[in-house]
Amino acid sequence: MPRIEEKIFSIGEEKPERELGEVLPSEETLFEAKKIFLFCEGKTEYYYFLDYKKDIRSSRVEIIPRYPDQEKREGPDVKKLTEQVHNSFEEFVVTDSGFKRSIEVFEIDEFCVIFDFDRNFDVINGGKTNYDRALEMKRSKRIEFFLSNYSFEVWILCHFKKPDRRMKTTGLKKEILRCSGWSRYKKGQKDVYRELKERIEVAKKNAAKLFEEKENKGIPIYSDDSNPVTQIGKLIEKIEDQII
Question: Which of 10, 123, 132, 228 has the highest CB neighbour number within 10 Å of its CB?
Answer without folding.
Answer: 228
